[in-house]
Amino acid sequence: MHKPLARALALCLLSAAPLWASAQNYPDKPVTMVVPFPPGGSTDVIGRLLAAKLGASLGQTVVVENKPGANTGIGAAAVARAAPDGYTFMITGAPTFTLNSLLYPNLNYDPLKSYEYVAIAGSTPFVILTNPQTGIGSVADITRKSATQPLSFGSFGNGSTPHIAGESLAQLTGAKLLHVPYRGSAPAMTDLIGNQIPLSIDTLVASLPQIKAGKARAVALTGRTRSALAPDVPTVAESGVAGYDFETWFGIVLPRGTPAPIVERLSKEIQAVMAQPDTRAKLQDLGFDATYQDPAAFRSKVTAELDRNVTIIKAAGIRPE
User: Fold this and answer.
1) What is the value of pTM for the model shown?
2) Distances from the Cα of 201 to the Cαs of 98, 131, 155, 169, in angstroms?
3) C-alpha R_g of the chain
4) Distance of alpha carbon 267 from the chain centroid
């Protein structure tokens, strides 16, 4: 072997040795969970639930650190730059991985190259809503009614997953839909209830109170399967749009280069936590399913959703505001 190459390999092994040695005793000090959102939101609530559970199973305190801003970019970049020793990880929503890089060109992280994927922990579908006065009761009704006059649909923001889901529905069914972005779920729901817009797409958990009160009608769920929270509501896929699947999920990642034993340990601990009956019950009370996917399935999901979303975004001409 050439001496320069041997020297380089030796240096790599020496630099990696401390990390691999520390992996044997992981964790031996408190761990930080970064949440790239303000306190109180769904990601923060789920993160704190997992932090308490993981702290008990790991035998070390898991400290939640909120780093909001730049559409999760501030927190995501901080974790990407963190030491790859297992003591800093992040929980965040799907758009951090599957939308931001397609909409914002100057990110300080790469969704596929900056992280070691640990697990998907928790998910919930979106729901297509209508005002009961519209007479719309199915996906077929949306396509039929929009053929004579385009239908507006609201979402909680330009470039949000509900926006992408609505554009995908239009592209797959031929429905004529016009997007109306709102600054959050509440104003979109207000206009839907007031019949200012005929359709809206929102999270199921945020919509359930109005659905139960009869002020909004659930047309279809956007995920692959029905939800235990609304078992009578069909999915879009069931309604004739094969393969349609949009949901919000929560991914947990470590900085790239974190030793594999630490990644595997954390992933298995999360899997065990998600299987606990009280965890499942608490998540269901919050409106989420206690789903778990391992690192390989997580990375495959991100890759597939990036490929899907870039096609939808280009076809719809979506640009960030």
Assistant:
1) 0.88
2) 18, 12, 6, 11
3) 21
4) 17
